[in-house]
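Internal tracking record. Fields below are filled automatically when a chain is submitted to the structure queue. Please do not edit lines marked as system-generated. If the sequence contains nonstandard residues, flag them in the REMARKS field before resubmitting.
Queue: standard
Priority: normal
Entity type: single polypeptide chain
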Amino acid sequence: MSRPRALFSWSSGKDSAWALHTLRQAGEVEVVGLLTTMNAEFDRVAMHAVRRALLEAQAEAAGLPLVTIPLPWPCSNEQYEAAMARGLAEAREGLDFTAVAFGDLFLEDVRAYREQRMEGTGLTPLFPLWGRPTPRLAREMVAGGLRAVLTCVDPRHLPLAFAGRTFDAALLDDLPDAVDPCGERGEFHTFAYAGPMFSRPVERELGEVVERDGFVFADVLCPAASGRMGEWENGGGRGGGESVFDTDGALTREFLLNRGYCCGNGCRNCPYPAQVSSPTSQVPGPESRIPGQNVEGAA
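SYSTEM-GENERATED OUTPUT FOLLOWS
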């Protein structure tokens, strides 16, 4: 009897990577592909800030086809849900799956949101890591050979120096007591580059570390791309041109003016009056309040 076929909702982070490994080890479903939503403005995974080339290298190392869904930036909940519905429908035509797996760990409202979105679609949501104590789970990941780099840090919870560090036993020892060891509340986000879910490590180089819009990002480069300015630095995803960031790493006033409205995120160079806020449609839904700010939702 053939096993159910599942599409994996992939954030590029360690929780997604370990959940994929867990599903494959259990053998109850056949994972047939990876699904990732991308920030269309910069062609990167949201919050994780992972470049497309690295995402594609992960999929190749995992031996799975990659399905990407571009999202506008900023993205309202309505836009997100419409894009996901279209993307899933198109993916089902090619991959013929009946389940979607997620790397969520314990946030009840996030799980409820995913289950609600799956209702009536004929797709079963799967949560292979759900409810596992994160202190033990984090150590299990490291002991099992998973390696990742912290690509985004929330400085309200972690010192800036954690950006760019390797997710390993030493890092777990150094985490403040109030920080979840898996970063499930958004304290940090990662890029997984090695482990039993991959046939080989993903080659990468650590780029610059910058602070933008309240977060600290560590850029991760493909070796072939080193020596070039990245998409975020040269306006990639928009056809190149002048940088959209100033020397301090904040979005420029010119870029924000060209965008035409205030996103409400407290951008340092925001040119709009304090009383002018973004449309209500810009308020993020549950999927935007967790690691990844997208369908993947895994650190």
